[in-house]
Amino acid sequence: MTQKVAVLGTGKIGEALLSGMIRGGWTPEDLLVTTRRPERAEELRARHGVTPVSNAEAVKAADTLILTVKPQDMGHLVDELAPHLAAHHLIISGAAGIPTSFFEDRLAAGTPVVRVMTNTPALVDEAMSVISAGSHATAAHLAHAEAIFGAVGKTLRVPESQQDACTALSGSGPAYFFYLVEAMTDAGILLGLPRDKAHDLIVQSAIGAATMLRDSGEHPVRLRENVTSPAGTTINAIRELENHGVRAALIAALEAARDRSRELASGTKD
Ligand SMILES: NC(=O)C1=CN([C@@H]2O[C@H](COP(=O)(O)OP(=O)(O)OC[C@H]3O[C@@H](n4cnc5c(N)ncnc54)[C@H](O)[C@@H]3O)[C@@H](O)[C@H]2O)C=CC1
Ligand SMILES: O=C(O)[C@@H]1CCC=N1
User: Fold this and answer.
1) Which of 16, 190, 197, 246 qualifies as a FRET site for 113, CA 20 to 30 Å off?
2) What is the pLDDT of residues 54-78, one digit of tens each?
3) Is the pLDDT of residue 268 over 90?
4) Tens digits of per-residue pLDDT, 10-54?
5) 241 to each of 114, 172, 183, 236, 248, how far by Cα in Å?
6) Ligand 2 pocket test: which of 166, 172, 178, 269 has the largest number of ligand atoms within 8 Å of its C-beta?
7) pTM for this structure?
8) Does residue 167 have its Cβ closer than 6 Å to ligand 2?
9) Rg of the chain over CA atoms, in angstroms?
10) Is 55 known to sit in a ligand binding site?
11) Ligand 1 centre and the CA of 66: distance in Å?
12) Domain range 173-262, its CATH number among 3.10.28.20, 3.30.390.50, 3.10.310.20, 1.10.3730.10
């Protein structure tokens, strides 16, 4: 396998991955990008020193093709790539919902496909990327995908049957935390704090809590109990969260995200 990797459809996730790969030691000369708009191509060249090419040129020059277009655009992209693909190519799909069989059904028999669900903390090398092999992907293909996504954070191999659930948890996950911070900052405003101070208090609390969750080895219930003093302030807040069904809302929300991921499987659902 050559060193060259092409990111096809370099939008938010494609660029986050690309920038992390460069931070992780890939040289821009080994990275190709494709975009729909020429202005976007120039932006990527200026920011990262990578070479923008057409989809067909990317297939010619690179062995590893990372497809980061929207699920709804995947069918069109795969049709465009199919005539140019050869036995040495590895397809890595970063799209929500689309199963590896979507590619296998449309490409030459035996084409290796790896499915990856990453997330936007790739921008700060704290991504969670969940990796599954298609029918023809070997251990070497999986290791190659892990090396690429390992440049932007943690990786975990899962059976493909768990990908939609993982998409709901970690793919979309950062959005839930951003949403919580937004809502808690609003609460700070209600309590009379200036927005910037409320934001700083909540963000630092989130960073502290996340670090404890990662590093303390303690169960989240125990960590929460340690904050919750008898007849104190926290338990009053927890009672309100329970009264408003926040736990049930979160469970329902992630189930809805999982269902939407399943719905995207055909690659044509708007
Ligand atoms: N945004 C997120 O947090 C995450 C997104 N994903 C997945 O990553 C994929 C991309 O998502 P985003 O980066 O958010 O979308 P985006 O819209 O920012 O990027 C997609 C890019 O693909 C380009 N594109 C579309 N068709 C093309 C074609 N035929 N040739 C070349 N370029 C083409 C678009 O112009 C766009 O710039 C989706 O499949 C999504 O499910 C996965 C994990 C997290
Ligand atoms: O919302 C979405 O469909 C994408 C996939 C996971 C995160 N963002």
Assistant:
1) 16
2) 999 999 999 999 999 999 999 999 9
3) no
4) 999 999 999 999 999 999 999 999 999 999 999 999 999 999 999
5) 40, 22, 13, 9, 10
6) 172
7) 0.96
8) yes
9) 21
10) yes
11) 11
12) 1.10.3730.10
**CATH code matching the domain that covers 5-158, chosen among 1.10.10.60, 3.40.50.720, 3.40.50.1100, 3.30.230.10:** 3.40.50.720
Instruction: Decide whether any atom of ligand 1 lies within 6 Å of the 52 Cβ.
Output: no
Question: How remote is the CA of residue 47 from the centroid of ligand 2, in Å?
Answer: 24
The reply to whether ligand 1 has any atom less than 6 angstroms from the CB of 11 is yes
The domain spans of the chain are: 5-158, 173-262
Q: How many CB atoms lie within 10 A of CB 240?
A: 10
pLDDT classification of 2: cutoffs 50, 70, 90: low
Q: What is the mean pLDDT of the segment spanning 102-127?
A: 97
CB of 96 shorter than 6 A to ligand 2: yes
How far, in Å, is the centroid of ligand 2 from the Cα of 260?
10
268 marked ligand binding residue = no
Mean pLDDT of 239-258: 98
| Residue nearest to ligand 2 atom 8, measured at CA | 172
| pLDDT for residue 92 is more than 90 | yes
